[in-house]
Recover the amino acids of this structure.
């Protein structure tokens, strides 16, 4: 598309969404859309983000409208290089630079005190800012070409599963974005670890691929855990990361009986389990999940989305192991469970409570 891009964005004439690949030319095109105040969905190693230039309050406001996200929920600013934190944050502790050197580019978001230059729109009015250098060649090329920090939440409607492919983004947001860069499926598959370094004891506000154990050595102490009253972390409200279909977490031995009960009162149902079904059952879409946490995390949101689109009554998920490597996965599954409302017949409630 040629012509005057800022004028096209202002008049809405760019509003038929462009799906771009990851050639240099396409990344340049997406960067031009960002510079002109448009919205670009782009791949990161964790999940797809919905980006706007972070120094343009109008563009950032459009992110909230596209997602249906409340205005007081802060956004993460994505940077091309770690040394850019000096511009976005103040009173930066040395440990933040150590962590950035060790884990960036990568799935770690640092919460720091914000610099005066940062707009309230990005931080939801808070005195802190979330910063991250993503580890994805398309994201890094886009950030470099844009030459600005890019504010980007996950590219889903508020409260829904984060997208891990360009198709997921299209299904979530469609023409609400100006362009989607397709960089394939995300390699990590769950949102970044969020570490609060803005004061007091460092705290993990959201678990992710970089575990509290991995952070303990550079921090020289185990980080604290986030709590439900952590400052406005949408992931900390129970309705987050939820598919539309009710989800129930069950121990492995509970799966078989639950499947039988549900099928006897009518299907279909979906199961995400760590082992194959003992007996295949018609009406039960059984998915055997990867046994390693990285492989599991990579496909989890795609599997939940698939189950969500098959009109099943309920998604039963085998509870993953209770070890640190599975912590982020357990966290997202528990939120998916909390966010799900049982359907009219209360099917899943019945299964869980045995009533
Ligand atoms: O992996 C990720 O972090 C992805 C990719 C796109 O980078 N982004 C992402 O953004 O998950 P979002 O907005 O869906 O989740 C970011 C979380 C939110 O829960 C938000 O409240 C929290 O980061 N956050 C951002 N700035 C914050 C701040 N200043 N203080 C506390 N939490 C903050
Ligand atoms: Mg999100």
């Amino acid at each position: 598309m040629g012509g005057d891009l800022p004028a096209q964005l202002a008049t809405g004439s760019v509003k038929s969404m462009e799906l771009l690949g990851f050639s240099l030319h396409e990344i340049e095109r997406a960067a031009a859309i960002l510079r002109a105040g448009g919205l670009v969905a782009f791949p990161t190693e964790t999940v797809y983000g919905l980006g706007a230039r972070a120094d343009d309050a109008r563009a950032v406001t459009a992110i909230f409208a596209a997602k249906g996200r409340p205005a007081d929920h802060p956004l993460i600013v994505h940077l091309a290089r770690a040394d850019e934190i000096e511009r976005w944050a103040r009173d930066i502790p040395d440990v933040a630079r150590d962590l950035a050197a060790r884990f960036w580019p990568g799935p770690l978001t640092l919460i720091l005190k914000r610099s005066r230059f940062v707009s309230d729109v990005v931080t939801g009015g808070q005195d802190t800012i979330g910063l991250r250098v993503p580890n994805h060649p398309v994201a890094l090329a886009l950030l470099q070409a844009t030459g600005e920090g890019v504010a980007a939440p996950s590219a889903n409607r508020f409260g829904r599963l984060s997208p891990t492919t360009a198709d997921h983004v299209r299904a979530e947001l469609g023409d609400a974005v100006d362009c989607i860069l397709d960089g394939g499926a995300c390699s990590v598959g769950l949102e970044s670890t969020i570490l609060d370094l803005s004061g007091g004891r460092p705290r993990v506000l959201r678990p992710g691929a970089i575990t509290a154990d991995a952070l303990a050595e550079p921090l020289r102490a185990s980080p604290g855990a986030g709590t439900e009253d952590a400052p406005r972390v949408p992931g900390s409200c129970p309705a987050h990361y939820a598919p539309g279909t009710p989800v129930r977490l069950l121990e492995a031995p509970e799966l078989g009986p639950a499947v039988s009960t549900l099928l006897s009162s009518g299907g279909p149902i979906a199961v995400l389990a760590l082992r194959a079904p003992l007996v295949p059952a018609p009406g039960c879409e059984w998915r055997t999940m990867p046994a390693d946490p990285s492989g599991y995390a990579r496909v989890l949101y795609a599997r939940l989305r698939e189950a969500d689109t098959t009109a099943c009554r309920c998604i039963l998920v085998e509870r993953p192991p209770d070890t640190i490597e599975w912590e982020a996965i357990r966290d997202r599954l528990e939120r998916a469970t909390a966010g799900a409302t049982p359907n009219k017949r209360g099917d899943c409630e019945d299964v869980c409570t045995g009533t």
